[in-house]
Amino acid sequence: MSIGFIGLGNLGKAISSRLRDVGEEVIVYNRNADKIKDLGYEIALTPKELLKKCDTIFMCLFDSPAVNNIFSMPGGLLCEELKGKTIIDLTTNHYEDVLKFHEAVNTLGGNYLENPVFGSVAPALKGELTVVSSGKKEVFENAKPILEKIAKEIFYLEKPSSATKMKLINNLCLGSFMATLAECTALAENCEIPKAKALEILGVGGGQSLVLKAKTQKLIDEDFSPHFSNSAINKDLHLLQNLAFSLNQPLYSAAIPKELFSKMKMLGKGDEDFSSIYQLFKNK
Question: What's domain 2-159's architecture?
Fold first, then answer.
């Protein structure tokens, strides 16, 4: 049976393309239909229409308000047709909102799998993402074969909201690493060390990381077309600070990266790849 897919931004487009490449028939819905009209997919007019054609529907949206809109809009997913269907939500949600999504879907007899994605466009196209799932064990086990088509590493944390919290924790590493690598790159250039050579040395030295491997060429070329945007990492670090506040726990190392990415948004660069934070440190 066809797989439904809602949300074809940079990451969603890559994941849906991967599903199609491994032989899945994909039907899509996007709030801005004009953005997907030339991608070659069958296009549903509403999310509800996907439920009539698909047993499993992926959602890959920017945030919880976008997910809530897909659920509650006229022709949305929260309807009688949801019964027996599975929603795999790849969105990085608010850790409290995601609990409401579990309840809303399950109440209508559907299956909700909280399934945030670790990784961006390049690994998505190759089926090499990491995913962490939370929800009912049987729902996870039934969904695992399709998850294996998009992900290299798959983890399961049964308690709802755990996967979302783990994604936010992971993105503390991601944002902190990127800010540090960007500053190191700019500092090396100010020392008259060629940028490409500095990145090569960092790549076998203290900067060795998946982040540097993924962003080295972007930093060299200063090509900041988005794979993972400044707005997205800023949103995630803000949610992480909210999580720490709810736990009455200080969060020292998130504060500066979060404000640096906020600065990029303020400069009108929210839609650029988050590696473009390098521009804050580079001498003009």
Answer: 3-Layer(aba) Sandwich (3.40)
